[in-house]
Amino acid sequence: MTFAQQQPAELTPQDSRTMLQIGKSYLGTQYVANTLDRDGEEELVIRTDAVDCLTFVEYTLAQALGSSFTENLQKIRYRDGIIDGYPSRLHYTSDWIENGIRQGFLTDVTAENSVQTLQLSLSYMSAHPKLYKKLANSPENVTRMTEYEKALSGKIVHWLPKSELPENGLSWIMDGDIIAITTKLPGLDIAHVGIAQYIKGKLHLLHASSTLGKVVVSDKPLNHMLNNNKSWTGIRVVRMSH
Length: 242
Description:
Layout: E1 2-3, H1 16-24, E2 30-31, E3 45-46, E4 50-51, H2 53-64, H3 69-77, H4 93-103, E5 106-108, H5 109-113, E6 117-119, H6 124-127, H7 133-136, H8 139-152, E7 156-158, E8 160-161, E9 178-183, E10 190-199, E11 202-209, E12 214-217, H9 222-227, E13 232-240
Parallel strand pairs: 1-3, 2-4
Antiparallel strand pairs: 5-13, 6-7, 8-13, 9-10, 9-13, 10-11, 11-12
Organism: Bacteroides finegoldii
Protein name: DUF1460 domain-containing protein
């Protein structure tokens, strides 16, 4: 296990506002890609001083769930909480969401509120192994990733097209909900993740921005962000469960 700094203070779980409260404590934290990819065996890496869009959400969720931060993080990041090499890490956000629902700490809010569905078709990682340090020179890892992609592909999930998301959000999207942005990039499911935050009645996104290089709250409402990115198609919304 690798610790870059002292673990964050543990908090008692309350509701989704706890997610927002904790997430805002990361404002200004540096954006750094690939902090989890280390030489040697796969291990639980904790670097709350440098995050990407997903690790920011993971650390926030692990704190919000209370009890043991380290145990929570392992359950969040790895399939059924078991570390078994690089492919056991939940690289596809749809897999990450399904794992959280299966283990009881996430609820799929979109499934309860949107009739729109899409069929997963995942192949991006196995089709572009050179983009990933632990796939580039490991045919075994590529084979395992391909198996997970095939297992996920064909599954039906609920989503909300960006054309149906108004500037002021929707009554069923709450402060602190996890927002996963869907994409039309072939073989990929989710392009970006963040946390819902309403500002003056409009839905914004608290997220680790690669463009700005740090954790920020979007200056524009979320629907503007979606409309300004042609490859982004809509959102999935999940919520921390107690």
